Task: structure prediction
Amino acid sequence: MHINSSDQVSRIYQMKDTATPNTTNLNAANKNQTADKVTLSEAGLNAESKMQDIAAKYDPSNMSYNELVSMGTELLENGLITSQESLALMAPPSRNFDPDEKYDTVALAKQSAAFDQSLGNTHSKDAKLRASVLEMLQAIQDLSDNNSNSYSQVREA
Result:
């Protein structure tokens, strides 16, 4: 933007002054508010319920590739991940692997994310997919841990 006259300068400053909120009025308005209400949509509640169901069935820190494929398929069918994320999730762990041998999918996903970071490659599409898969696996792991802790507490009671 080129400013050619002092008239334009004064209009810019006027616009800036009117765009700046009056913090005194905002603070007074915030003091009058007592609580915020958050409402989850039915779809959000269903997604959370589906995630908990999946987490009750699978342990991402100790699962076979066959179990990973089953979990990935459930996540995709329930709309919890995209098809691209499902492909990234179900990438084979190595070249010659036993599909029934259990391994830690969370640790493997962490290694992939760390490798992306070491290369400074965190903004590429593939790196973002791998980061998304890691977040999903960690969320399922957390829910899985909570389910097993709840089960242990019930058994001890």
